[in-house]
Design a protein that fits this description.
about 25% strand, TIM Barrel, Urease, subunit C, domain 1, 6 helices, Metallo-dep_Hydrolases_sf, about 220 residues, 5-stranded mixed beta sheet, alpha/beta, 2 domains, Metal-dep_hydrolase_composite, 6-stranded parallel beta sheet
């Protein structure tokens, strides 16, 4: 069989082992891994090199507005080009819903920007900051059915945090629809209490952010 591409003589690294073999690629898919494959329409000699799957970066902030309205430095082109140069072939950035925004509009906006600029594969984690009956019953199931498989919720930060009732609603809906929930779990009132006292003492430098977010707030 004449493959579109044959990668020869490399040291292949899988999830469980390393071994020397050739890789045959056809139609953009790996279809054979074994020594001595027939020449392809294009050959790459990987002698002396490691050949491994592309990385998946599952925690990325690309072209995302923060809760304070600040845009990330990377857009979907610069961020995914940088990832590709580092051997990462899939990124899963956050799609952030801010209060007053419909989930469907948020997902559509991030998908449009990624579709126009990204040079590698991508998916999205969906940040939820506002929980409504419509979101739980319609928008969230629709987003999950469309390929959003993970959600992020916050227990702190005034513009993002959900109360316990809302967290349970999201977890129930995610469980029903088959999505994973990631929780930024910190005690909001403890952080606010420490931060108020730091500010009263004039401690406003960035390093005091870590002091305000004491490890005890996560326990």
């Amino acid at each position: 069989m004449a493959y579109d591409l044959t990668i020869r003589n490399g040291r292949i690294t899988s999830a469980t082992s390393t071994f020397h073999a050739d890789i045959g690629i056809d139609g953009g898919r790996i279809v054979a891994i074994e020594p001595g494959l027939a020449p392809g329409r294009r050959d790459i000699d990987a002698s002396g090199k490691w050949v491994m799957p592309g990385g998946i970066d599952s925690h990325v902030h690309i072209e995302q507005f923060s809760s304070m309205g600040v845009m990330c430095a990377d857009d979907f082109h610069s961020g995914t080009v940088s990832a590709a140069f580092g051997g990462t072939t899939t990124v899963i950035p956050f799609a952030a819903q801010h209060r007053g925004q419909a989930v469907a509009d948020v997902v559509a906006d991030y998908a449009r920007r990624a579709r126009e600029r990204a040079v590698i594969d991508y998916g999205f984690h969906l940040i939820l900051s506002e929980v409504t009956p419509r979101m739980l019953q319609h928008d969230l199931p629709e987003a999950i059915a469309g390929g959003i498989t993970s959600l992020k919720v916050y227990m702190t930060y005034d513009a993002l945090k959900l109360d316990d009732f809302q967290l349970l609603d999201v977890m129930e809906a995610a469980g029903r629809e088959g999505a994973l929930v990631m929780v930024h779990a910190e005690n909001h009132d403890m952080i606010r209490w420490i931060a108020r006292r730091l500010l009263a003492l004039g401690h406003k430098a960035p390093k005091f952010h870590a002091v305000a977010h004491d490890a005890l707030a996560e326990s």
